[in-house]
Design a protein that fits this description.
The chain is of the alpha/beta class and 143 residues long. It is built from 5 helices and 6 strands, in the order H-E-E-H-H-E-E-E-H-E-H.
Length: 143
Amino acid sequence: MALEQWSGLKRAIEAQTEWSSFRRTRLPDQVFTANAGMVLKEKVVVSRFRSPERQGEEPFFREWFAKQNFDIAAWPPDIPFEGAGDALLDRASPFFGLGMVSFRQNYARIAGENFQPPGIGLQLVDPRFYHLDTCLCRWKVGI
């Protein structure tokens, strides 16, 4: 019965989801698509992951955004950026995580090039909440 339920759930998700070359990879953290990048209207800052385990995801995310006709922002290879882990948009202002795995250079670079006013930097201090989205976002799963 569990397999039947899982298969039904999988079919339902696949029917509502665009599947791309991602599913042919063996990158287990790629399911965290909020970390793919940060979209600013028609422009996207594609993630540059700090950890080698996630760096293999970058070309797939970049390819997907390019196929969707996003303008891909230039980003230096030596400054990590992890999408919603580092930056979240609110209706009024963007928020940027500082500390843990986020870096002040990210905030200065993204805010300075893309926002007026430049948004709000939030210092992350609890290692249990190492990404901005783990601090500010809450998911509720109902079965």
